[in-house]
Design brief:
alpha+beta; D-amino Acid Aminotransferase, Chain A, domain 1; Dna Ligase, domain 1; 18 strands; binds adenosine-5'-diphosphate; binds magnesium ion; Rossmann fold; 4-stranded antiparallel beta sheet; 6-stranded antiparallel beta sheet; 3 domains
Length: about 400
């Protein structure tokens, strides 16, 4: 789950990370009050969307008077912001953050993240802050510093000093820089984050180190014990179908192809997508209905797949171990009737109660194409989709 910058900063502040004073605007009639409360002499007005690159896209404006700050907030609230991370359609801005402007001397990059290669929480830093860290990693990888944290000791002050020296912090700047990094690590661990990024981590002309931007991603698997953070979820920022799937305990990821897949098991779902591709087709989604899926979940899975207007055919691939073929077949039949399926449907069933499952499909008299085995299923859906198009 992603947090907005203003939510991330509020959390960081709670742990003692210095952030500029700020306030969030949720509606136009908050603007005057929030700009006044934040106070100047310089205001920075920032679009709150779950995407970076807002500065370059016109979503971050600096204002030198309260009137200009109000005008900037008015302009940004409701605008459609296009950045390199939003895709060409952009994202509509529903929330605006206003904060005090800092006197920036240098912009650094600092993050706490999980390094999957070492299975350790790792600090990542660079003197090349403010810009796209992916670009720095690609063109000048030597400018990225990593400090790996041993899970037995946790982060110690020496880890922070190592990073601070690598970032070129001067002796006087270590006073705020070192506690800031330790606080960020504490926050990262406490809130079950998988990424905590501060970009830029700014050194001000006054010699303070402050977080001017922050991106936090929370591990979804930990949300059950992070109810305060789970409540910060902004559903308007999320893909509608993915959200709907999550509510139904379905693992769904939208892709760009035209063949919808309904599969049980993540591994089989991946293999199914590979088979579709090797038969010359393109999967429209990844979908794992999970084990022991009741009929209603199967119906919901069809609804989610068909919500995507690109879908021109559906392949159901079930190997029933925990699931039962008869229940899946009932779900397929119910869904086919309920959603008035207009696209070709290929079903491959194998495993527990397979005979019963096949009988249910055959008895339904619906236009369901039965398949024998994986390769046959993939070939049938690719050719059925092609002839339907
Ligand atoms: P994004 O990463 O989405 O472009 P940032 O919050 O990093 O958005 O803002 C972009 C740039 O705007 C920063 O690199 C920094 O130069 C400037 N900036 C952001 N917040 C402030 C602030 N409070 N004071 C001064 N400059 C700021
Ligand atoms: Mg940034």
């Amino acid at each position: 789950m992603n947090l907005h910058e203003y939510q991330a900063k509020a959390l960081l502040a709670k742990y003692g990370v210095p952030v500029p004073k700020g306030g969030v605007i949720l509606a136009a009639n908050d603007i005057h009050r929030v700009v006044g409360e934040v106070g100047g002499p310089v205001w920075v007005v920032k679009a709150q969307i779950h995407a970076g690159g807002r500065g370059k896209g016109g979503g971050v404006k600096i204002a030198k008077t309260a009137a200009d700050a109000e005008k900037a907030a008015q302009d940004i609230l409701g605008m459609t912001l296009v950045t390199h991370q939003t895709g060409p359609t952009g994202k509509e801005v529903h929330r605006v953050y206003v904060e005090q402007g800092a006197n920036i001397a240098r912009e650094l990059y600092f993050a706490v993240l999980l390094d999957r290669a070492t299975s350790r929480v790792t600090l990542m830093g660079s003197t090349e802050g403010g810009m796209d860290i992916e670009e720095v990693a690609a063109s000048t990888p030597e400018k990225i510093v990593r400090v790996s944290i041993d899970p037995v000791t946790g982060m110690q002050p020496f880890h922070a000093r190592k990073m601070a020296f690598a970032l070129g912090l001067k002796a006087s700047e270590l006073k705020t820089g070192v506690p800031l990094m330790l606080a960020a690590y504490k926050a990262y661990m406490d809130i079950d984050a998988s990424l905590l990024e501060i970009n830029p981590l700014a050194v001000t002309k006054e010699g303070n180190v402050v977080a001017l931007d922050s991106k936090i991603v929370i591990d979804d698997n930990a949300l059950f014990r992070q109810s305060a953070i789970a409540a910060m979820r902004d559903e308007t920022e999320e893909n509608h179908a993915e959200l709907r799937a999550q509510r139904a305990s379905i693992n769904y990821v939208k892709l760009d192809g035209d063949i919808g897949c309904l599969v049980n098991g993540a591994g089989l779902a991946m293999a199914t997508m590979d088979l579709i591709k090797s038969s010359g087709g393109e999967p429209a989604n990844f979908l794992d209905v999970g084990g022991g899926a009741p009929k209603e979940r199967v119906v919901e899975a069809f609804n989610i797949i068909l919500e995507d207007p690109n879908v021109k055919g559906i392949l159901v691939n079930i190997f029933a171990g925990i699931n039962r073929c008869d229940i899946i077949a009932e779900g397929v039949v119910a869904a086919t009737k309920e959603v008035q399926m207009k696209v070709p449907l290929v079903v491959r069933l194998e495993g527990t109660n397979v005979e019963e499952g096949r009988r249910i499909l055959a008895d339904s008299k619906l236009a369901i194409i039965a398949a024998d085995g994986l390769a046959d299923a993939a070939e049938k859906i690719v050719s059925a989709t092609r002839s339907a198009v």
